[in-house]
Amino acid sequence: FTVPTKINYTWPNPQYDALEKLLYEGTRLDGLSLSDSVSGCKSRDGQEGRGTGNVAAEWVRFAFHDAITHNIDDGTGGIDGSLFHELDRDENRGQGMKDTSADFLKFAGRFVSRADIVAMGAIFGMSSCGGQNILPYGGGRVDAQKAGRCGVPVVEQSVDQFTEAFRHLGLNSSQAIALTVCGHALGGVRSVDFPNIVPPSSDPHQVIYRNFDTTPQFDSRVVTEYLDGTTQNPLVVNANQTVTSDKRLFESDGGAAMRVFQNAGDRGFKIACREAYRVMINTIPAGVSLHQIDILPAKVIEPQITIENGELIFKVDLRLTQNLTQPVPLDRTITLKWCDKRGSQSDCNGRVNTAQFAARSQPTQTPVTDQLGLSFYSYAFRVAIDIQTSVGKFWFVVDNNDGNSPTTYNNGGANYDFQQDSIIFLPRMSQTKNAGKTLHKMVVGVRIPLVSTRVYMKTYEVAKSNTEQPQEKSTTLSLDGTIPPQKGYAFFSGDVSANLLGLTIDIGVDTLDQSYKEEYLNARVLGCQAGIIAPTTVSTA
Ligand code: HEM
């Protein structure tokens, strides 16, 4: 298995940012939450005929089924999202698998592979049900474009067959027992999918969901109930002896592995399972590497120039991580400082601009962040600017007004270098054109006097099915005669057909001698007025 490499984060790093946001805030760029589906160790809502499966359990089983088809002999397979192409196989039977793939699909995109989400799903599952955070998390898994080999163990098999299946994952027989008992610490078996294991109810609308132990939480009950003989685990105690795979496996070493777990106690069990899961989620195809995604103490979010209320605005949010045991300094002052990009005082030659934040909010967080004892505060900066001077490098100074000296966040000394203002996205001039919300007039601004040879928007839509990849489309935008130039920009537009939910865009302009682009923007179409945060005063020094 692979150990994630630690990297030195510097902005910009869109893949790191996207994975960090999903892991610790739980959301994709447009705010939809993945971790909400599982936090609090939730169950499905039990729609008719589908039962109330434990979401965390489904996500962990999904990771296992993706991982186990690794082949240690040739380095193929592992957590590579091939499972999305294998869901029609009998070895991957079950409503939980289908529901999980639907949960995950919406979150994969440009910088977040399905395989990275599969791994993250297991982490969320574990931490939301009282298990331990599996950190550090490594991101960078690469998605398989087709099904991989078969090889998920099924209940009817012999211990030798189980041993061989787990050997392919790189595990010996006691590690196989450990991983299985850790997996079966959550969830259970559904009558609808496995009537040979859990006999169905006489009411055809009812699904019987038989848990592996008496608690929905991740704890060592699956071990203690097995050893004290009270277990109702349907893979141990069953009238149908062909399906008692856990019994066969747990007995295969004379119960030694189970006794080690019992002696370790509940905490020891959780730690051992964390390590077993770590191996599972970091088993990936040879040649793929993982980089560590740590929570960022200070994170710059979506710096951009746009037009709001007829003003050219520079917008940026600073997200600060807050230790839950420490009070949030309410009278904290946070100053955004920046240099002009152009003009006689560019690069802070004789002038530094400053402004205070315009609004504060509390971003969402995940069970992983909860377990770290951390939360977030986000500070929104909005300042009116002039394109003649624009924005170059910026940084922040945070003063908690508690007698300690202020902290400067400047991207590790380099400052955040606002990359380009030659092409800007204008969500407040863009419009949705049809009732089905699939056709949009998208507007961008190109800085005058650039002479463009091509202005375009690339859209990246969320994949529509398991076997498809996110859809990528490019639309050429043309000069829009209905929007007069203003604030130093000429406006280009074009009709883009796409579902805005989860949509990200790149915008770009080519001129005769140069190309400018802005990548991975949240494709918003906003009203002219709604939700505008009024800009704060700019001072200069
Ligand atoms: C010999 C090996 C294994 C066999 C034969 C086996 C078999 C099964 C079966 C038949 C189910 C019922 C699924 C359903 O009703 O939807 C199940 C559930 C589950 N398995 Fe395994 N399993 C094995 C090993 C593992 C391992 C190694 C893990 C993870 C580390 C794991 C994690 C889970 C989880 C979390 C569930 C509950 C799913 C839910 O409640 O939706 N299993 N297993």
UniProtKB/TrEMBL annotation:
InterPro entries per the record?
Ccp1-like, Haem_peroxidase, Haem_peroxidase_sf
Q: Which domain of life is it from?
A: Eukaryota
Q: Name one GO biological process term.
A: response to reactive oxygen species
- What is any Pfam family matched here? peroxidase
Q: Which GO terms describe its molecular function?
A: heme binding; metal ion binding; peroxidase activity
UniProt keyword list: Heme, Iron, Metal-binding, Oxidoreductase, Peroxidase, Signal
**SUPFAM superfamilies annotated for this entry?**
Heme-dependent peroxidases
Q: State its Enzyme Commission number(s).
A: 1.11.1.-
Where in the numbering of this chain does the Plant heme peroxidase family profile domain appear?
54-264
Family of the protein in this entry: Belongs to the peroxidase family.
Q: What is this protein called?
A: Peroxidase
